[in-house]
Amino acid sequence: MIGIYNQNELEVQEIIFYGLYALQHRGQESAGIAVTDGSSITYHKGMGLAADVFDEKTLERLKGGKAGIGHIRNTRAGERMYANAQPLVTRYKKGSMALVHDGKLVNAHLIRNDLEEAGAIFQTSMDIEVIAALIAKYIDLGLEEALKKLISVIKGAYALMIMTEDRLIAVRDPLGIRPLVLGILDDSYVIASETCAFDTIGAEYIRDVKPGEILIVNEDGLTSIQTPVPLHSSLCIFEFVYYARTDSTIDGISVYMARKQAGARLASEHPAEADLVIGVPDSGTTAAIGYAEASGIPYGEGFIKNRYVGRTFIRSSPHIREQGVRIKLNALRRIVKGKRIVVIDDSIVRGTTSKKIVEMLRLAGAIEVHMRISSPPVRFPCHYGIDIDTSDQLIGYHNDVDEICNIIGADSLGYLSLEGLMKTVEGSGCGFCRGCFSAEYPIEPEK
C-alpha cells in the first residue's frame, strides 16, 4: 500500500504508480489507485501487475489529485476476482471513501454475519468491506471516534489506509503485525507498507507507524491518535525471512542485515564441506553472502533469474507455482558443473520450489547439493494474511528434516534454528509473531 496527501502540486497518481512498482513483491494479482480532487473520488483498478493495469491513458484520467492511495494485492487461494481488487471505493451517508488493507482479520466472518443479520449487503469476500461497513455504522460518533471504535471491534493483522474526499488516514493494528511507515516528500506526507517505496519516489523516511496508531492527514497537517495497545507487539517475523524487500527497514531493523546475519548463523549451525555457496534469488541471496563470509566457502552466482516472472510462493495455484519455478530460474552450468554446492534459500513452505531447484542443479552437473534454509521449518498456518491457511499444505508439518531432505532430493538439509533467527532481529524494540514456526499466536482465530 502507498498513500500521499498532496501539499505541493505533485502528480499524485504517478507517485503512487511508481510506489506500487517498488512494492510489487508484496502482491501480483491486482493493482489499483484512487485519488480525490477534494470533492470527489476517482479510481482505476484491474487484475495483474501495476504495469499491466496502468498506462498513460489511465494515469492521465487520475490527474489532479489532492490525495491518493494505491494497492497491490496478494490474492489468497480462491479469491482471485476483479471484485476483490482494491481500493474499495464506497459511498456512505457522510460522503465517499476509498480503502486499502494489508493483512487479515481473524473475526471478519463473525462481524460480517452480524452485519448481514442487521440488513447489510456485501459485494466481495474482502475484510476491507467489513471494515468499511463498520466505519459507516459508527460514523455518527465522528470520524475519530468511529476509528477508535473500529479498532476495538476488529481483531487480527491490518495495515489500513482510508481516503475520504479531504483526508488521508492510516491505521496500524494494535500488535503491529503488518508493517507501515511514514515519510515526507517535500511538504507532503506519504505512508507506505515499506521504506523501499520511499526510496523509489524520493521521499524521506520519518518513522514507523506505531502499533495501534491512527494518523490523519489533511490541509492542517498530521494528527496522531494513539489507541490502547497490549504490552508486547508482534511484528510478523516472516517479513524478514521472505516477504519484505531486501532494501527495506522495518521497525528499526534492516532487512538486508537481518538476512545476512541469518546466513552467517546458518553457517555456524549447519556447516558443509563444499566448493561454492549460491543463493536462490532474490530473498535467499543475502543469506548466501552471509553464509559464504562466515564459512570461508566462495560465493558465486549459480542461478540466472528471469526478472519478468513474479514470486512463486504467493502464486495461488500449485500448478502455476511449479511452472513459475521453471520459468523464473535457470542454473548456470559452467559455474556449478563438477562442484559441491551449498544452496541457500529463505524457506521451504510446500516443497515445490526446493525440489525443482535441486533437480536443476543436478541437471547442470553439480556433484553434491547441500540445501540450507535461513529460517526454521514452516510447520503451522498463518492466520494473518500470508497464504498458508492449513498445516496440510506444509511439507514441514508432515515430515521431519531427514524426510524433507529425501523428498527434495538434496544430499543434506539444514534449517536455521528459531533461536538463531530471533537473534537476527535483536535491538528492534518490538516483539514478533512466530506462529508459522512455533504455533504460538498473538491472536487466536475466532470460530
Protein architecture, described:
- With 447 residues, the protein is of the alpha+beta class.
- 32% of the residues lie in helices and 26% in strands.
- It has a 7-stranded antiparallel sheet with strand order 3-2-4-1-10-9-11. A 6-stranded antiparallel sheet has the order 5-6-7-8-12-13, covered by helices on one side. Strands 17-20-21-22 form a 4-stranded parallel sheet, with helices on both faces.
- α5 (127-138) packs across α6 (143-153), α9 crosses α10 (285-295) and α11 runs parallel beside α13.
- The radius of gyration is 22 Å and the shape is globular.
Tell me the helix content.
Answer: 25-40%
> In total, how many domains does the architecture comprise?
2
| Terminal-residue CA separation | 29 Å
| pLDDT < 50 runs, ≥5 residues | none
* Top-tier CATH class of the largest domain: Alpha Beta
The geometry reads as: globular
CATH superfamily of the largest domain: Aminohydrolase, N-terminal nucleophile (Ntn) domain
- Structural class label: alpha+beta
State which percent range the strand residues make up.
25-35%
Q: What's the number of extended β-strand segments? A: 23
Main beta-sheet strand count, sense and barrel state? 7 strands, antiparallel
- Spatially, the strands of the biggest sheet line up as 3-2-4-1-10-9-11
How large, in whole angstroms, is the Cα Rg? 22 Å
Number of helices: 17
Per CATH, what is the topology of the largest domain?
Answer: Glutamine Phosphoribosylpyrophosphate, subunit 1, domain 1
